[in-house]
Design goal:
The structure holds two protein chains of two kinds.
Chain A (H helix, E strand, L loop, with lengths): L1 H15 L31 E3 L3 E6 L8 E9 L7 E7 L15 E4 L8 E5 L6 E8 L5 E11 L7 E5 L3 E5 L8 E2 L8 E3 L6 E6 L3 E8 L6 E3 L1 E3 L10 E4 L10 E9 L2 E4 L3 E6 L7 H26 L5 H11 L4 E2 L6 E4 L4 E4 L9
Parallel strand pairs in A: 1-9, 12-20
Antiparallel strand pairs in A: 2-3, 3-7, 4-6, 4-8, 5-7, 8-9, 8-10, 11-13, 13-17, 14-15, 14-18, 16-17, 18-19, 18-20, 21-22, 22-23
Chain B lengths: L12 E4 L2 E4 L1 H31 L8 H32 L7 H27 L7 H30 L21 H29 L1
Helix pairs in contact in B: 1-2, 1-4, 2-3, 3-4
The chains are: A alpha+beta, B mainly alpha.
Amino acid sequence: MNRFVIVTLLSVSLVLAPGSSLANPGGNGDADRDYSCGGSCHGDPSLSMPSDATIEITLGNEAFSGQAVSVEVTVSDVSSPSNIVGIFLLSSLNGNSDTPEDHGWHIIQDPNGGSSNYIETKMPPSGSIAATWVLLSPETLGSNNLYAEIHHGSYGGEKAYTGVSEAFEVFVNDVPEGLPGMSNEWVAPSFRVSGDDSPIHISTRNSTDISVEWMIEGEWEPIPAPVQCTSDSEGGVCNDWEVRIPATMGEIEIIYRITTYNGTFSIKQPWLKMGTAPPPFEGDIWSARAHSFAFALLVISMLVSLQGRLSPTVKREEIDEKGLVDNSSLIRSEDNPGWLWNPETGEWVEDQEYKEGAE
Amino acid sequence: MESRNRGMGGRPGIQRGGRVMVSSATLHTSMAEVVVGSMVLATICAVGCLASRALAPSKINNESLFITMDRASLAGSFLALVFLPIAIMTGNLAAESHSSSALLYNKFVYSGLALGFWAAFVIGRIRLGEALWEARQLAILQSATACMAFLMTTISASIGGKLSRGESLLDLLPFSLPLDSASILPLWASSTLLLLGIISTTVVFRLTLLRVHITD
């Protein structure tokens, strides 16, 4: 009875132990996503709760049509912090076609170095995060709205939290003809492979010259980088450039700023970030499969031989011959040493235990 | 958006041509759960068998308990051994998007090690029979094999968590295993190693079969 109660209690405890579950505590990865990720836990009213975080949007510089602008999203006062926070930069809250790209913006770089409107980042102990997107402003002049939304969980994992900012109005100004800026097609590289010092390609428009200054994240003194025009310049305008920034190793991040010139007129673009990635993995999947089965067979052979070695063995002679003499009617004869008489068959059998000269 | 519903509680099956299809990732998860569950049972029972023989007989530690644990460990490990290749194959199909990563390479290697340890456990138990628990050294070897197999399976399953969800229970450990980097062998070296494995297994089976038959 006692044993039955113990086993029942143990089983019930084991069943109840993983009661609370988390959908995607490791996040879903950076991507282009619409408002609330329709169908997700954070978008489901029965599974989500409003986050009490304060979400603010600020502009790093004035927005001009087709020109780069930095948009900073600040998330603070998160009272139920989780390991990871997802931040959206949106142009509407319709639930579809909400990304800035859908509304004429072009993301040059997101806070993680990519070009997505949704990014995931670790929640620092302070509970406050600042994330900066660098975008090209839309061609449409006038008022454009931007929103920031956050998704996060909690350490308990019982609810999916969601929060959205007020609409942030960005007034896009007209620009004079021929204003130098970044190309609509260009996306800033998010990282370079460790040790790679190949030049970085930059596309501009209406530029007669560019200058690039760079520094390692955390430093204060920018260093100018050599630049070179790589396309035929027409009327002094060159829109394809190569810039040489020294190779980086480890986890170093470089920040750099491009200044575009048209004659004597210059525009400083927002700071951009470039990380260092480890060299690409060069393993072959078939090699991994062969490696795996080789290890399996080697482990089997090693353990089976060990089992054979450790197994208690009984010698064949002991089984056959002792048993034969002890458990049968074989008779030793003093007249015929080394031979046993089998009365059942009437034949002589060789005595395996007989040693010449021994008694 | 293509990635919007991915991994966020989406539907388990997809209707294609009137038939319900299940993704290889879902199938792999269910197979892995069967394998891990069976292996937990087998490992606990294998260690229990060793403890049962090491401790003095009592009201709880009786022959009936020992026989139950021995058979449960055999059944659990046998079931796991049947499902492990299926889990590996479905994992192969599910891993297309991670075809070049150190984590995946390590998952293959650890899966192979797990397969080897579990196969050795089952082979040992079937060939040597229940009597293997009576020989102290063999019993220790058998329990250690089960523990190593369980460890390899756990690491392999944790790498799966890292690949699909970006985290695993191993993150809770006070130290980190170097799973993000792999010792890569070129194909010719892996193939040579595989050939060596086949030869050594064949030789070992031919030599030890005779020995075990004599013992029996």
